[in-house]
Amino acid sequence: MKILIHILFFLLIPLFTIQASPSIAYTPQIKNYSVNDYKAGNQNWAVAQDKNGIIYFANNRGLLVFDGIRWKLYTLPNNISIRSLYVGEGERIYIGAFEEFGYFEKETEKGLTYHSLKAKIPHYNYYNEEIWTIHEYANKIIFQSFSSWYVFDGETIERHEWEYPLLYFFTLQNRLFVQFMNGDFCEYKEAGFTTLFTREKVQNDDVVGILPKEEQLLIVTASHGLYLYEEGNPARWGIPVSTSLAASTANRTVSLGDSIYIIGTILDGLYAIDQKGELLWHINRENNLINNTVLGLHTDTNGNLWSALDNGVALIRTQSPIYQYEPFEAQIGMVHDITFKDDNIYFATNQGVYIKRPTDKQPQLIAGTNEQTWYITVIDNQIIAGHNKGTLLIEGDKAYRMEGPNGGGTAIRKCILHGKEVLLQVSYTSMSIFIKDDKGKWIFSHNVEGFNNLIKSLEIDHTGNIWAGHMFKGCIPVAVRRNTTKSNRSGAHYPFR
Length: 497
Fold this sequence. Notes:
With 497 residues, the chain is an all-beta fold. Helices cover 3% and strands 50% of the residues.
């Protein structure tokens, strides 16, 4: 009986998902957009999205619109910067600027048309006033400046003042909050503002964000970290990241779902923490964020994060299953593969095999492996690596060369050949077979006779077919027959002697 196996050679790009580990700092993928991409001003003060998925930015040259492919800029009549924006029901995109506020609305096929609202306030001197936040509350749009706020019901608009200057308005769970400039943190009620806590309760700092946390409110201050509030005094949330946030000057906040908090800072990019206060990731200039100063945040309909920056825009793909890690302090070279075992993380790189234990700050090179390593994987609780000097068995932080093949393997897979479970390893020259010994350890058996190809990658599909990626050539079928004699002239190869 003859068993025929076809091996097809073509270029493969393997895709894999890295699972997060508490001992290593993974970050989501980032797509940065610079001035060269969107052709407008460098500063972006706010970001929002409409029901059609279009993203809007308050840019210092106008309203910047992105549909996922094309960018378009809409300027105000006096070509000034837009500081704030809010996307309301229907087609209206509300904006606030210096001595100007109103909304853009789609009225023609050519795009958006701007409608100013300041003319609806007769005999008002709006000199030197700038709109910094826009919110929807009680079915009305609120434009807030440092000196006053305007309430727009869709037709008419009213101006309101208070005895103290306003810093920020916040809306959360159908409630309206305000941080007064150099003053207390309050909630707006029909009779006016009710103090929730005095400034002294947060070390004379400003509240820059408020987020829901179970039955509490998470209070984010600019320079004194995080506080938890529940109908009484705010209590300092003493988590380690609070110190880093205090030193970085928190500026903007948003929730990802109901369990992840994003905090944008002035000095050090973005922080993500979970409900327990654990740091999930930190993104800044050192790990690919285009700019460290976060001026606006928004979670889009796909659950990804948009960040409006002092210089550019960033899309953080928080819903992607692929995260990344780059150890900047320990330059470990090009990473070809990664695996996990016993809370340790192993990297196969062009400089050797690195291990990162939970107590390590940076990956450490395993002695004797300091050459090209193509793969590393756990098979039946054994760590096996394809190294230039041969196949390695890794145990903890020790490496042992397995007897047998001289050249380093580029890929290895477990499969069934002729009814027997084996490991099939390919390399730049040979194809090798590994079998288990009496103790269940994988050991080298033999090289497949007559096989000599530059193979970089290998996969076994669900039907048992073998797919191999050749370095240069196209598809080359290779027949493998069960036979105990030497290879025939057609080039057939024998996996067993």
